[in-house]
Design a protein that fits this description.
There is one protein chain. The chain has a 7-stranded mixed beta sheet, with helices on both faces. The protein starts with a strand and ends with a helix. It has 7 helices and 7 strands. Helix content is 34%, strand content 26%. Strand 4 (83-90), helix 4 and strand 5 (117-123) form a beta-alpha-beta unit. The protein has one domain (4-183): Gcn5-related N-acetyltransferase (GNAT) (Aminopeptidase), CATH 3.40.630. Helix 1 (13-21) crosses helix 2.
Length: 198
């Protein structure tokens, strides 16, 4: 089975929303406005595709995102620069195919040239213990816990140091080489601002 990880396309948002909302209790549900927000603002929004079918997605934001998630704000209150994994969803029936590992290798490649840390949270329920093990196997460690406001959900806040970042920063600063694999996602919101001159 061949798996492709690539940037999301706008016509795929409805399918991604349905996949998210069918994922179970470990993933917060979304609505149309939220998926549209991610389409316009996420620094990293990629999908996994196999045999022309979407089988997963991962959304991540840098620290300077204008994002209201209480989990995201927890990391902003505690750390400087980072890349925050907001959610990773793998379609049912595809969860033992290694797609999550491919996504994390890809998002780490994105993060390690942009920030000193990759961060995420996992809800502390029995059903999410495999997710905690998964993140631990990638080198994440717990740096705190966060009780979401107006919710019974408590999250384990996870942190992974990006060991390559000091070298990248010392060598290139904020001016990364102009090669395709280092280019960030072309966000529609940014494209619209450029088109209007704002």
């Amino acid at each position: 089975m061949s798996i492709t990880i690539r940037d999301v396309q706008e016509h795929e948002l409805d399918a991604i929303l349905a996949m998210n909302n069918a994922a179970g209790s470990g993933i917060l549900p979304m609505n149309q406005a939220q998926i549209r927000y991610f389409w316009q603002n996420a620094d990293y929004f990629r999908v996994a595709e196999t045999d022309d079918c979407l089988v997963g997605f991962l959304i991540a934001m840098t620290r300077d995102a204008d994002y209201e998630s209480s989990n995201f704000r927890w990391f902003k209150d505690h750390y400087g620069a980072f890349v925050y994994v907001d959610r990773i969803v793998i379609a049912k029936g595809q969860r033992s195919a290694g797609i999550g590992r491919l996504f994390y290798a890809d998002v780490q490649s994105f993060a390690e040239v942009r920030a000193p840390a990759l961060v995420a949270e996992v809800f502390m329920e029995e059903s999410t213990h495999p997710a905690l093990l998964f993140h631990g196997s990638f080198g994440f460690h717990e740096v705190g816990q966060h009780q979401m406001p107006d919710s019974p959900l408590r999250a384990a806040m996870l942190y992974k140091e990006m060991c390559s970042y000091p070298f990248v920063q010392a060598t290139y600063g904020s001016q990364l080489p102009a090669v395709p694999w280092l280019q960030g996602r072309r966000r529609p919101a940014a494209d619209a601002r450029r088109a209007t001159g704002t």
